[in-house]
């Protein structure tokens, strides 16, 4: 009787372990087969809130959503970046130019960051208004921003609306995907 119970327990354990190994390697193979933003998104992996959106797989690969330069979505009426363009290759220091509505600034500046593909800040500084920022009109800005070298080639320039209140409802930003040229 004890032998039957022991054999049953061992059989169940072998089936459970076999099933776990099967599903582990099946999921790993499914991750390896992902080759686009759409496939990454369909598999439920995290989507970064950026422009354009990026999806990251558990094995460290990142896929960027195809987006045209004209589709800087609802932000086009708030901030417009002239250089660099999405997916440009940049070199340190990079000159960032554009124009933003006066309320994007605080005390004539707003923060800019350069992130690597892992989300690590590798450069940051303030973009300065080139004119009277106390307006609702567009005000040109420029910034020469250096960055430290990264182990990744993909990066993102993030332009943040200055938010001295610290209230989340006042936060806003746009993100521009770029390729980082090593220093």
Note down, in words, how this protein is organized.
With 183 residues, this protein is of the alpha+beta class. Helix content is 20%, strand content 34%. It is built from two helices and eleven strands. The strands form two sheets. An eight-stranded mixed β-sheet has the order 4-6-9-8-7-10-11-5, with no helix packed on it. A three-stranded antiparallel β-sheet has the order 1-2-3. The longest helix has 31 residues. It is elongated, with a radius of gyration of 24 Å.
Brief overview:
The chain is of the alpha+beta class and 183 residues long.
Tag the structure with descriptive keywords.
alpha+beta, 3-stranded antiparallel β-sheet, 8-stranded mixed β-sheet, 183 residues, single chain, 2 helices, elongated
> Span between N and C termini?
72 Å
Q: Which strand order does the major sheet show?
A: 4-6-9-8-7-10-11-5
**Strand runs, count:** 11
Mean pLDDT: 84
Number of helices, where a helix is a run of at least 4 consecutive DSSP H or I residues: 2
Helical fraction equals 10-25%
Main sheet attributes: strand count, strand direction, barrel closure:
8 strands, mixed
Topology:
Elements: H1 2-32, H2 37-42, E1 47-48, E2 54-56, E3 62-64, E4 79-83, E5 89-90, E6 94-101, E7 109-116, E8 121-129, E9 138-145, E10 154-160, E11 173-180
Parallel strand pairs: 5-11
Antiparallel strand pairs: 1-2, 2-3, 4-6, 6-9, 7-8, 7-10, 8-9, 10-11
